[in-house]
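User: Let's play a game. I give you a shape written as tokens, and you guess the letters that built it. Ready? Here's round one.
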């Protein structure tokens, strides 16, 4: 019915399409594993189950909550409705202070305790991370 050339073209086009679909699937799957979701303290309280997945928690550093010891820094992130205790071992940014916006990346231990692996502080007095601003405006 079809000639040899047509069958060969159809085979190669099918092979290319399948390769393209497989490539896109593998890229999306690998990106899915590296996605870090942003949550506010109120969002964390609404979670049904706390998984040990990497998340970002953002809000304001509660005034009089920073406690610095030789090994770690403990503080509280608030969105003015709920709070979460954060523990961080490492260097803190120079602009990290009480009453300022912060985003902490790390792992949830439970709904009220967060172990941070990275602290992101705002870079000037007018800047607030878009996720934090949206979460605070929503609340």
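Assistant: Ready! My guess for every position:
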């Amino acid at each position: 019915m079809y000639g040899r050339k047509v069958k060969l073209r159809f085979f190669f086009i099918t092979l290319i399409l399948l390769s393209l679909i497989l490539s896109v699937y593998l890229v999306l799957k690998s990106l899915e594993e590296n996605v870090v979701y942003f949550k506010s303290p109120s969002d964390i309280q609404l979670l049904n189950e706390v998984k040990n997945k990497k998340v970002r928690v953002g809000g304001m550093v509660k005034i009089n909550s920073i406690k610095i010891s030789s090994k770690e820094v403990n503080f509280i992130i608030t969105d003015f409705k709920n709070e979460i205790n954060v523990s961080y071992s490492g260097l803190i940014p120079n602009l990290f202070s009480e009453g300022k916006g912060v985003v902490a990346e790390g792992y949830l231990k439970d709904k009220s305790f967060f172990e941070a692996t990275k602290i992101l502080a705002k870079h000037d007095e007018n800047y607030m991370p878009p996720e934090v601003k949206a979460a605070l405006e929503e609340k």
